[in-house]
Design brief:
This protein is mostly helical and 177 residues long. The chain contains 7 helices and no strands. It is elongated and about 70 Å long.
């Protein structure tokens, strides 16, 4: 949370510096818009869904390896878990919510005038706007969950095929030495 707020602050500072070092009313409106739109919550939810998806994908991979090698020792199972944890950490480190927040703020600044931002704020402050925010938030969350579920399912199938293809390929390489 502190990191996201820091990024937003840094992003606004960058925009201000680009505007001659003054904190303009447009910058303040962008700040309010990101707060009212729930940028922090959007990023937090997306990151949690992504972590859950990665965990599911790796669980499926672990299951496939265990089926293929049912007689693994406890030490081998521990080594497999270390490998899977490292893989997960690599994936999750690639997702930087600070960068995402900066992109969001920059795009608003570059693509909306102050008047448009204020008009949008007026709408989102209204009861209809509050309902729209809730609906869009739920729809975005469901859409993200859909994409992640599809990726999980496709990865399960693709991983099984990939390992079979790689085994065949490496066997052919070994035979052709």
């Amino acid at each position: 949370m502190k990191k996201i707020l820091m990024v937003l602050l840094l992003s606004f500072t960058s925009i201000c510096l680009a505007n001659g070092g003054e904190n303009s009313s447009k910058d303040e409106a962008i700040n309010e818009l990101t707060q009212i739109m729930g940028l922090k919550e959007i990023l937090d939810t997306t990151m949690e869904q992504t972590k859950s998806s990665v965990k599911k994908i790796l669980s499926d991979i672990r299951s496939q390896v265990t089926v293929k090698f049912p007689n693994m020792s406890v030490k081998q199972e521990e080594n497999l878990q270390v490998i899977l944890d490292q893989y997960a950490n690599t994936i999750l480190k690639a997702i930087d919510t600070q960068t995402a927040a900066g992109i969001y703020v920059t795009e608003i600044a570059n693509n909306m005038s102050e008047e448009e931002i204020n008009y949008t704020l007026d709408f989102y402050r209204s009861p209809q706007g509050a309902r729209a925010r809730q609906a869009v938030g739920k729809a975005s969350s469901k859409l993200n969950a859909y994409f992640l579920t599809q990726i999980e399912q496709a990865t399960k199938v693709a991983y099984a095929k990939l390992t079979a293809d790689l085994e065949k390929f490496t066997k052919e390489l070994s035979e052709n030495r």
